[in-house]
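Hey everyone, long-time lurker, first post.

I ran two proteins through the pipeline my lab uses and got sequence/structure pairs for each. Pasting them in order. The first:
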Amino acid sequence: MSFLRNYFGTSAAPAKEEKKAIRALPASWYTSQDMYELERRAIFSRKWLLTTHKHRIPNSGDSVRYDAAGYEFVVAKDNNGTITALHGNDLFPAHVHIDRNGFVWVNLDASDTPEVAWKDDFDGVDEQPRFDHYNFEDYYFDHTWDMEGAFNWKILADNYNECYHCRVAHPDIPTIADLNSYYVKTKAGHIQHYGAQRDDQIAKGFRIATTYFWPNASFNISPHFFFMQRFTPTSPTQCVMRYEVYRHKDATDEAFNLISDMYKRIMSEDKYLCVHAQKNLNTGVFVNGELHPEMEQGPLHFQKTVRDVVTEHYAKEEAVGHQIWPAKQDIPADVAVGQDQDVDLSVGVNTYAQVDTFKDSMGTGLSTVTAIAV
């Protein structure tokens, strides 16, 4: 566990010091294998993950396999018409929540009751007044598409949650939204994006509502389609962007393809930006910079949530002296005889190897990271 102390420091800076500048997460949080493994424990094995929509599995017997940060699971509809989720190869149940709009959330916490309740992070997110413009029952699943990217999943989240770059990087966006009116609302585990469309844009079917759901998902809905985006990390510097696209039952081919193709272009442009941002971080020159309190309010909220969640989990691990994996299934006592010692030995060997690797690769160059009041 000691190899992670460099990321958090041993004491918090005084509050007066913390508020001098709003700092971004350090570059090491976007490159380190150790930090990635901590995120797997602190975030992806215990938080609610927006995964799909009920229209993806409309019939009993339908199932789809998903993954997130090395965790594999299946979402299915059983013979009773109930949507369920199962952990990867073990096939023990995962927790499922269906919100009022039909979106399917999965929590991989192996406890009978997850430590984090869905309402803790997302209370009211499915009751946004702007959703009154859409009837989610009128859409159906159309297709999926993926893109692989050589960058940390958090870079894409940072990119998605601000529109500082939109005027120069996304020529399509000014045609579907008024960037002069763009702003975000942040609350707990979600970031709501707003850009007031003009009357002529609304007439073309571009009344769009966008929400980011921490940690790694979002959806954009319009009268003709909605699409879901999931950032699925596979390593500290690699992730796969997975998209599910849904079509309104009354959408013409022209109207549907217009906005569907547009978002494919926008997402490809974001990928280009993220790949090069990761290259800059990999050089080891950048430590961390300041974020604009208004123009980058979305990334600030996202990064603060990351910092708070992983710091809290790390403190729990330090207190008990070992790693905590909430998604790990409890093994019955009669099966576990002798297995705990094997697991402890394996963890111990890996930890010592990581300590040596961490010291060799990082040396003393890492800056101390402290919690920042935002």
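...and the second, right after it:
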Amino acid sequence: MNTNSQTPIVIYQEADQQVEVRLDVEQDTVWLTQRQMSELFGKDVRTVNEHLLNVYSEDELERDSTIRKFRIVRQEGARKVTRSIEHYNLDVIISVGYRVKSPQGTRFRQWATRVLREHLTQGWTLNRQRFEENARELEAAMALVRKTAGSPALDAASGRGFVDIVTRYAQTFLLLQRYDEGLLTEPRAEAGGRLPTLEEARAALASLKAELIAKGEATDLFARERGDGLEALLGNLDQTIFGEPAYPSVEAKAAHLLYFVVKNHPFADGNKRSAAYLFVDFLYRNERLLDAHGAVVVNDVGLAALTLLIAESDPANKETMVRLIMNMLAIPEARVSGESV
């Protein structure tokens, strides 16, 4: 089998000898090449190869279940080349060790068994901790939905929006089933995302304001800035920390933009509607308003419900709300890696 999987590499050290070992916790084994076995046992590659031929010709082990190809980068002259190299699992390594009558084989087996046991135990503990943490966060998110559902500001249309949010959220949880990553951890995201300039944001809101006033659905107070609230908010979203973006992905910028405009009240009136409009405008500018099938990522009713959910939420639940929005915007893994969807 040929694989690109990034199996962890650990270092086996015996006296002055060091060997890189591929660790495979899922199959409870480790993998070495012929050259690595020759280094481990202090024998040349030809001797190791002869023992390998005997292991398989005598039907001591099966080739298919004990050999795996990994793509590794090797330095060949002045260039680096990727090659598919055969690796042999712990059963084969032990068999060769017995045949060369090398005490290193016993010490290596003891070391490998201990390392595998440690990784299995630690991995289970970490997965359990992540699952429990995300289960608590999921419960907090659902508690916010239940609380907001009882709000007098919730009409029938917004109620339908909540059903849409909860349904999509539950589907995400059921589909991912990632105990090691967890539902509410930040999803794989699309790096970058261009925020609107202050002038662009003002122009977008002015267009919305004119349209609403013409319909009799807003007054001159709508989207009127309070001090430098909007400018500070956009500057905060565009800041860097030690040279790295504080909000490095499209999802992170979009979620925080929606949250901050709703919660920080940078306008005299219409903060929720302004937040929703700037959120949609940002997604549109970054070609993320529609999904791969041409449907809007969050429809207008669902977006209205989402802004209400943010407005009703306790500031202590900010991270929960942000991660909820990011998961709703999460894109397929293939697109993140640059492949066609």
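Reply from user beta_strand_b:
Welcome! Quick read of the second one: Residues 14 and 107 are 9 Å apart (CA to CA). The beta strands are 2-3, 9-14, 17-24, 29-32, 67-76, 79-89, 240-241, 244-245.
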